């Protein structure tokens, strides 16, 4: 009668040895599913519905529009206007791709375009805007990246819509593309414009 007990003991030990491997495989599958499943531009932002960060940023020195220096970011500029805030850098490849679309969007006089230049060399930033045209009426320089952290930026480019009350109403992670320009971004801008009238 002692033989059946001896046979069951090694089986239960094998299961105990295999249990961590099974748990690890299940967790790995869950992490991969969360990492690669879904649209990365749909990452939720804790700032939606909250006031835009009250961080002032200096102007990009030497950036001139119509003969005058383009101002830096003053948080008071958000009040009373619908604003599109784009976090960009000259070294960011997708920023080059979205630049013509932002230039097109700048033709809409119902909103103001605000640029936050992220960890960039001033000469490179000015060259970038000279190459594509400057769509921004305001450009704040975030040299150390602290302001972008306050905005909840995951990486450049990112785009925010700030409503007339100065609250963030939408966030787009990743570049503005021909695919999301009309179907997503313009739709969200129209919502923000209608909300304040």
Would you mind describing this structure in some detail?
The chain has 5 helices and 7 strands. It folds into 2 domains: 2-37; 41-195, Glutaredoxin (3-Layer(aba) Sandwich), CATH 3.40.30.10. A hairpin with a 5-residue loop joins strand 6 and strand 7. Helix content is 42%, strand content 18%. The longest helix has 35 residues, at 2-36. It has a 5-stranded mixed β-sheet with strand order 5-4-3-6-7. A two-stranded antiparallel ribbon has the order 1-2. It is an alpha/beta fold.
Unreliable spans are none
Question: What is the CATH domain class of the largest domain?
Answer: Alpha Beta
So, CATH architecture of the largest domain? 3-Layer(aba) Sandwich
Alpha carbon gap, first and last residue: 86 Å
**Helical proportion, percent range:** 40-55%
Morphology call: elongated
Radius of gyration from CA coordinates: 24 Å
Count the beta strands: 7
- Tell me the CATH topology of the largest domain: Glutaredoxin
In terms of structural class, how would the helical and strand content be classed? alpha/beta
- Major β-sheet annotation: 5 strands, mixed
Bin the strand percentage. 15-25%
On the 0 to 100 scale, the average pLDDT is: 88
Write the layout of secondary structure elements.
Layout: H1 2-36, E1 64-65, E2 68-69, E3 82-88, H2 93-105, E4 111-118, H3 122-132, E5 138-142, H4 146-150, E6 158-162, E7 168-173, H5 178-195
Parallel strand pairs: 3-4, 4-5
Antiparallel strand pairs: 1-2, 3-6, 6-7
Concise summary:
By secondary structure, the chain is an alpha/beta fold. The protein has helices spanning 2-36, 93-105, 122-132, 146-150, 178-195, and strands spanning 64-65, 68-69, 82-88, 111-118, 138-142, 158-162, 168-173. The chain has 5 helices and 7 strands, in the order H-E-E-E-H-E-H-E-H-E-E-H.
């Amino acid at each position: 009668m002692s033989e059946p007990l001896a046979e069951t003991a090694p089986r239960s030990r094998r299961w105990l040895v295999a249990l961590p491997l099974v748990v690890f495989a299940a967790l790995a599958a869950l992490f991969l599913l969360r990492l690669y499943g879904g649209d990365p531009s749909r990452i939720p932002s804790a700032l939606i519905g909250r006031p835009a960060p009250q961080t002032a940023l200096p102007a990009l020195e030497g950036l001139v529009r119509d003969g005058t220096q383009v101002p830096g970011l003053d948080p008071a500029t958000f009040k009373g206007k619908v604003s599109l805030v784009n976090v960009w850098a000259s070294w960011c490849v997708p920023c080059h791709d979205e630049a013509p679309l932002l230039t097109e969007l700048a033709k809409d006089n119902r909103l103001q375009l605000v640029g936050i230049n992220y960890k960039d060399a001033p000469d490179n930033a000015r060259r970038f805007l000279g190459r594509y045209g400057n769509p921004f009426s305001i450009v704040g320089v975030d040299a150390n990246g602290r302001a972008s952290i306050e905005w909840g930026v995951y990486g450049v480019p990112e785009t925010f819509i700030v409503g007339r009350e100065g609250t963030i109403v939408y966030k787009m992670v990743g570049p503005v593309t021909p695919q999301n320009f009309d179907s997503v971004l313009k739709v969200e801008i129209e919502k923000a414009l209608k909300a304040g009238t």
